[in-house]
Amino acid sequence: MGALHAGHGRLMEEARAASGAVVVSIFVNPIQFNRSDDYARYPRPLEADLAFCEARRVDVVFAPTVEQMYPQPQVTFVEVGRVADYMEGSFRPGHFRGVATVVMKLFQIVQPDRAWFGEKDAQQLAVIRRMARDLNVPVEIAGVPTVREPDGLALSSRNRHLSAEERAIAPRLYESLRAAEQRIKAGETRAEAVKWAAREVLAAEPGMHVEYLELADDAEMQPVEFIAGPVRVAAAVWVGRTRLIDNILCRA
Amino acid sequence: MGALHAGHGRLMEEARAASGAVVVSIFVNPIQFNRSDDYARYPRPLEADLAFCEARRVDVVFAPTVEQMYPQPQVTFVEVGRVADYMEGSFRPGHFRGVATVVMKLFQIVQPDRAWFGEKDAQQLAVIRRMARDLNVPVEIAGVPTVREPDGLALSSRNRHLSAEERAIAPRLYESLRAAEQRIKAGETRAEAVKWAAREVLAAEPGMHVEYLELADDAEMQPVEFIAGPVRVAAAVWVGRTRLIDNILCRA
How far does the CA of residue A171 sit from the closest CA of chain B (Å)? Predict the structure, then answer.
């Protein structure tokens, strides 16, 4: 969706390291936004994005207009069931339907052999992996680790909406995930106890409002009650008018 | 779905006349059946089908098992909205979702340049055309006219379920569509009056039960009240335990 940062840069580097031509799509996709204000204020610095891509030896930037992607009312949608049911799926109705649909369209247009997605959007990655497998899409899906600021804040195009004050408290999100991870590493197997440890960190910050904090299996993104293997700890919080998400994969 | 007849043969001839390799898929797709008895008794004469394809110089027959097409529970589906709302869509819940999903899977696996579908399933053709356009699938969709028995009955794999007695009355379906066409050609523009003429033919046959008889625009398959251009007259009827569908495109 553009407003490129070092996280996207990492995707481009991974793609560039593989053989073949590198195509970057830049498209702020209206059908995946459940709030029109979020869509309206989503940053669109196209000139800077093009320079960013050029510096990373990207071969093609595909930056269509909304009219080019949706020349007529879209009546066909790709629906990904259970993987999209919780977390982002329950708080952003229609979001993953919009994501799956536009990614399918982009895959059909660009016809890549491999596609890279950031793990910061772990549920999105799971949705796209499942879609590709269920619909036999001949594209190999690769996940790329989240890139963080020195204080732990995950890079996101929405970070630029944060005021200096909001920016100062934003790292608490990652701290809360790390607190959960420590409890898991210490042997805690009850999800509720792990979540409590993470929520305690967030509750200490009055400027941050929790939308969800969940432990889920990494493949199907279903909530887990007891931790028996690797588990994705994921959260969404509001800082002022800005919504931030983050997650980490924890192993006991 | 196999149980090949001269209607399928026509598809193969059209494909053979175009340049390139001809691939035929034969797969009785469980997720498009809304009645398990219909799925169970759908004919599967694979040996005869293979001979049929060979005689028509088909290059490849793709006849996967259910386990190959659905190795894990299918959670991703292609949903085609308004085009699938009426007629077959309203009487066979989930049918077009199953059709769109399996056709998308087949397209991704086979990656054809062009695909041929019979006009006997006019709404299915409209659903697939819309899906391909909405999801930017790089496959050209071609419709092929319905092949009929000398008495007008449209060829269908389900015709072999008809008893001799049922077979004798089955042509009434096409006759009813022709009655509608005559009213349209005579200048009638009210859909209700046209439908009445067709239903009169069907009502005269006690062995035939009408499920729907509708006039719809050919692109979006929405019911029309007044006839202003070409219109698809479509019907579904029951003859004993067998459900038959047929349609014709009428021009004033």
Answer: 35
ipTM metric? 0.93
Task: Say whether B76 and A134 touch across the interface (CB within 8 A).
Answer: yes
- Which residue out of A134, A139, A140, A222 would a mutagenesis test of the B interface target, given it has the greatest number of B Cβ atoms within 10 Å? A134
Domain B6-144: give its CATH code. Answer: 3.40.50.620
Q: Are strands B231-239 and B208-216 parallel, antiparallel or unpaired?
A: antiparallel
**Among 3.50.50.60, 3.40.50.300, 3.30.1300.10, 3.40.50.2300, what is the CATH number of A157-250?**
3.30.1300.10
Q: Which segments of chain A does DSSP mark as H helices, in order?
A: 6-17, 36-41, 46-55, 66-69, 88-91, 95-110, 122-134, 164-169, 172-185, 191-203
Q: Tens of pLDDT along B115-168?
A: 999 999 999 999 999 999 999 999 999 999 999 999 999 999 999 999 999 999
pLDDT in tens, A60-103: 999 999 999 999 999 999 999 999 999 999 999 999 999 999 99
Choose from B129, B134, B141 for mutation: most chain A CBs within 10 A. Answer: B134
